[in-house]
Amino acid sequence: MSEFPKTPGVYLMKDATGRVLYVGKARDLRSRVSSYFQDSTDLLASRGPEIAHMASLVREIDFIECETEVDALLTENRLIKDVQPQYNERLKDDKTFPYLEITTRDDFPGVFVTRSPRPKGSKLYGPFTSAAGVRDAVNALQKVFKFRTCELDIREDDDKRRFFRPCLLHAINQCTAPCAAKISREDYSADIKRLIKLLNSKRSVLLRQMTREMQAASDAQDYETAGVLRDRIKAIQSLELSGSVEHDVQPEVFYIDPAVGLEKLGRLLNLPETPRIIEGIDIATLHGEESVGALVCFIDGKPLKNSYRRYRIKTVDGVDDYAMIREVIARRYKHAAGAEELFPDVILIDGGLGQLHAALEAFDRMQRAIELDGGEGVKPPMVVSLAKREELIYVQARSKPIRLSRNNEALRLLQQIRDEAHRFGQHYHHILRRKRTFDEDVKAGRRPPAGRRRRRSNEG
Length: 460
Prior knowledge:
Elements: E1 9-14, E2 20-26, H1 29-34, H2 40-47, H3 49-57, E3 60-65, H4 69-83, E4 99-102, E5 111-114, E6 123-125, H5 131-145, H6 168-171, H7 185-199, H8 203-219, H9 223-239, H10 245-248, H11 250-254, H12 258-268, E7 277-286, E8 289-299, E9 302-303, E10 309-312, H13 321-337, E11 346-350, H14 353-372, E12 382-386, E13 392-395, E14 402-403, H15 409-443
Parallel strand pairs: 7-11, 11-12
Antiparallel strand pairs: 1-2, 1-3, 4-5, 4-6, 7-8, 8-9, 8-10, 12-13, 13-14
Helix pairs in contact: 2-3, 5-9, 8-9, 12-15, 13-14
């Protein structure tokens, strides 16, 4: 149990065949998972016969560490909908479970926790396993986006609104009070669109959009609007809603047979032999700060964690993914390029065509440098990139990307490697951000929050 962190997250219980039996979330992963492995009689008494029987079938438990309980809640929801595990069966159709509902049909949409979702005119997220967890999430999100949670029928053409007295939520700056005409329909709709974008795991896109809006307001000397946007950007960053199951988690759940995936990947890439060693690379950064590169290694379709590497970016200032990829490639493969060690069979880059070209350019630069020194060097391996959302595979020397079916084993293997690189990189990135905050607190004479400790890291 020592492998499980004492942090929020989602756990996946699997049987001997690798089939997911149950998905759950926890505030403390170690505590929650250990509760399933008490004496069988105690488990039967405390959790019931169904859970006791499930626990007897469990042979493997995977976990996905999350930054916050809100993140864990959203991750659990998306994972259950995608996988539909046997012991979460009643979540599929049972409408007694809570949903997060946004009433988009209204002039001023409200956000609610409901067990009876309306069939039309609303945007739904769920079902969730914990009503309290959803309510906590709504409360946290309302502090950022100031949406209404009341059941009032608020219409734009109702002139009487201006005489209405808003509730306490407006007084504590947690609602913009459309009931009292304190905000226009256009501005309120913009906040709801930002909320939906965040819930759809487009946090980075939202932050870039709001940053542009803040700059535009500042340029127009609308400092009040710029200040509001600045505060909301900071609040969204503090939420850390980074989980995205559709893109970051599902390969770990679905992918079972690595041999089939490797064989299909070899044929797809026209390799002379079935690949055995694949390395995945990802870049993690936030506005160009604490930028890191992450490299994971898979052998025969299984992660080899003692070969993982992480690189604190040294030569790039600001946001430049391509330059960061070139730096990581150069640092990782400089010895292999000089024939001092072996290349992997395949290198996978997290990204699209631009990221692939950046990696290939780095190899080309290394090759030219070796030739200038009178050496011959070694031909680099197959390099591919995998773009999120579209899940398109870009391959060197091919003019068009490859689109595979969602269930293709080769695609699942690449997704698994890409997402493991993303997880590993994000973990290191957050360590560095916490360390910087700690150092800033100490330098300013502030007392860091209790329990915060520096964490040592091995850089590549």
